[in-house]
Amino acid sequence: MATPNTSLRTARPSRWRLFVRSLAGTGALLLRDPYALFGTVVYALFVLIALFAEQLAPFDPLEILFTPEGNLAADLRPSREHPLGTTSLARDVYSQLLYGTRSALLVGVTAAFCVVAIGTVVGLVAGYFGGLVDTVLMRLADIAFGIPFLPFVIVLAAFLEPSVWNVVLAMALILWRDTGRVIRSQVLTVRERSYVEAARVTGSSTPRIIFLHIAPNILPLSFLYGSIAVGWAILTEASISFLGFGDSNVISWGYMLQDAFVSQALSRGSYYWFVPPGIAIVLVVTAGFFISRGYEELLFPRLREED
User: Fold this and answer.
1) What are 196-236's pLDDT values in tens digits?
2) DSSP strands (E only) in 104-238
């Protein structure tokens, strides 16, 4: 015969299990939204390209190529051997485009995770404790709002070694502010609900209340900001690489644009060189926006009613 505690555990699944179930249901609903479905398909396509870039790319992205006659294969037009032509340094543009997907997604996902993790923890702590803790953390957020992001990344890249991780570090230090403020405002309402008060009465520790009772109810908002942060990170990395502050040993879409700009690809009509990475950046950023749009309408159903 089951004890009362065992039967109670069986009858009432944990909040994290309920969160996982609701997350699965949310994913199914997102796929019904045409915008979110488009964004999900785009992300899935780029993830597959990043995983199998070595198999899909015909050449190493940094390899200097030669023609069968022994000449430098520079500035070649698109052909069967080189679908997107070659650069002025005789490198295959198509291979660079495929390998650039890896660095774009690596920076985007890592930076988004750091932004969401820091912002969520700051919002949880500030909203739950209030008082002096809330004041100090929100003043730090105000300082972060006052720092111009792109110049901050440029200064950081100038002091550190050129690396894609400069973008991740800059976003982690600055862009947690948006997530932190929104999560804090949500926690201020959640902490007053009856199940949180019941957890306090039963003697639950503060970390347990924050991370087991409050966090599952605000994580959907964190995911919303995470989907937006992915696009921001990829766009920022492309901007930094285009300005010449990126790592020259890492192929990225921004590096391709910077290389084309320096080589005056536009004046020479080499559209096959800089248009594909530009389209890729637009697709990824737009996909993140569409996913966040569909997710926002799930969180706030009145938006769909107004449409």
Assistant:
1) 888 888 888 888 888 888 888 888 788 878 878 888 888 88
2) none
Burial 216-250 (b: 16+ CB within 10 A, else e): bbbbbbbbbbbbbbbbbbbbbbbbbbbeebbbeeb
pLDDT at residue number 2:
46
Q: What angle do CA 40, 231, 171 make, to 5 degrees?
A: 140
Residue 161 burial (10 A CB sphere; 0-12, 13-18, 19+)? exposed
Q: Could you identify the residue written with the tokens 């065992």?
A: 6
Question: What's the rounded Cα separation, in Å, for the pair 291 and 294?
Answer: 5
**CA-based nearest residue to 223, from 142, 299, 304, 122:** 299
Q: What tokens were used for 32?
A: 């019904």
Are residues 92 and 59 in contact, defined by beta-carbon separation less than 8 angstroms?
yes
Mean pLDDT by 10 residues, the chain (307 residues): 43 51 52 78 92 92 88 89 91 94 89 91 91 92 89 83 81 88 89 84 85 83 82 85 80 90 88 92 88 67 49
Tokens in use for 127?
A: 């909203």
CA-CA distances (angstroms) from residue 266 to 4, 19, 79, 239, 269? 74, 51, 19, 18, 5
Within 10 angstroms of residue 276's Cβ, the number of other Cβ atoms is: 19
In the DSSP assignment, the letter for residue 55 is H
